Automatic annotation (TrEMBL):
It is found in: Endoplasmic reticulum membrane; Nucleus. PROSITE patterns: HOMEOBOX_2 (PS50071), TLC (PS50922). The keyword Lipid biosynthesis applies. This is Ceramide synthase 3. Its main location: endoplasmic reticulum. It comes from the Eukaryota. It comes from Gopherus evgoodei (Goodes thornscrub tortoise). It holds the Pfam family TRAM_LAG1_CLN8. The chain crosses the membrane at residues 40-59, 175-193, 205-224, 258-280, 295-320. The lineage of its organism: Eukaryota, Metazoa, Chordata, Craniata, Vertebrata. Residues 123-328 form the TLC domain.
């Protein structure tokens, strides 16, 4: 077993996989004040993630709740269904939406009326729907302040990303940016079980894991300069989207519309223009000027980045549909809620329909980040 692990370890850290030819890991040892990223640095992201969880708890309790109250968002108390072991077991193991014949069978089994069984399932389903206050808290905690590095030359000149590679010294701002980003995604993974359960739950799991793996691998290969640029491009638009969600929950329609328009503009600038013509140009085209032989990591990293650009175009299509409705029909508020923020409002409509005993008609799946 030890031999197998040693062999796998040697394969994983194969120098031709990560770094250019005629360069070894020994060349990337710290010397003369020059510091390089080390794989063991990533161990710190786990305790940092728990620190972020504590910070999140403080924000949710002492900032998000008072802010929500100031915006007029009330904490609605859901009515709990009457305790019933038979129905609870059926709800958990069989289905949350039994058919009429199943309801009649359960009514006989519990010696209840059909109406009481239907009412019990409605209330039990409603308990699992997050309140507006809870969704507001999550949106408030989703703000992520990134470390801006506009003073560095590669922030403006993409050619500078590969100058001197792989012998590029690690900056303290880059270290903390990476640690914060990876820790942030770890903390999101740790709370997936307690956060609002969305339709794209598995997509979020895959997204968070993929983000952690890509950032960790770029750290190990010292692709830190291009890695920080990729993170900045993606972090910039998130602030405006989460802000739009928060004001949408508070029913501040005009403010939500303005924020969504700003988000749309930032989204298209960063992910439809800058990412392909700036980032991908720096990862696909420019490395050939600095090395005649591409390392295997060149193909490993560019594959996911190209897939990511495909997702940008996919999400951009839905954003365009919203803006089209707004510009030509003047229905921005309605479109924002019915399309990009559809998931949140569908849950509200779903709750209203449940109270009437109706089945909700969902129009469009939620589009994640």
């Amino acid at each position: 077993m030890a031999y197998v692990l040693k062999t796998l370890n040697s394969w994983f850290w194969w120098e031709s996989l990560w770094i250019p030819a005629n360069c070894t890991w020994a060349d990337l040892e710290d010397h003369n004040g020059i510091v390089f990223p080390k794989p063991y640095h990533l161990y710190a992201t786990i305790p940092y993630a728990f620190v972020m969880l504590m910070v999140r708890f403080v924000i949710e309790r002492y900032i998000a709740i008072p802010l929500a109250k100031a915006l007029g968002i009330k904490n609605v108390t859901r009515v709990k269904p009457q305790p019933n072991a038979v129905l609870e077991n059926y709800f958990r193991k069989c289905t949350k939406r039994p058919s009429q014949s199943e309801i009649q069978g359960l009514a006989k089994k519990c010696n209840w009326t059909v109406h009481l069984v239907e009412k019990w399932f409605r209330r039990r389903r409603n308990l699992e729907l997050p309140t507006m206050l809870r969704k507001f808290q999550e949106a408030c905690c989703s703000f992520f302040v990134w470390f801006c590095i506009p003073q560095k030359p590669w922030f403006y000149d993409i050619w500078q990303v590969w100058v001197g590679y792989p012998f590029q010294s690690l900056l303290s701002s880059q270290y903390w940016y990476y640690m914060a980003e990876i820790s942030f995604y770890w903390s999101l993974l740790f709370t997936l079980g307690t956060d609002t359960k969305r339709k794209d739950f598995m997509a979020h799991v895959i997204h968070h894991l993929a983000a952690i793996v890509l950032m960790a691998c770029s750290w190990c290969g010292n692709y830190v300069r291009i890695g920080t640029l990729v993170m900045i491009v993606h972090d910039t638009a998130d602030f405006w989207l989460e802000s739009a969600k928060m004001f949408n929950y508070a029913h501040w329609e005009k403010t939500c519309n303005v924020l969504f328009i700003i988000f749309s503009v930032v989204f298209f600038i960063t992910r439809i223009i800058l990412f392909p013509f700036w980032i991908l140009r720096g990862t696909l085209y420019l490395p050939s000027y600095y090395s005649s032989t591409m390392v295997i990591a060149y193909f490993i990293f560019n594959g996911p980045l190209l897939i990511l650009q495909g997702l940008h175009l996919y999400w951009g299509y839905f954003v365009l549909k919203i803006l089209n409705k707004f510009l030509f029909f003047g229905k921005c508020g309605t479109c924002v809620r019915n399309y990009y923020l559809a998931y949140e409002n569908e849950q509200v409509n779903h709750l209203k329909n449940e109270r009437k005993g109706e089945e909700s008609n969902l129009s469009m799946p939620y589009q994640g980040k």
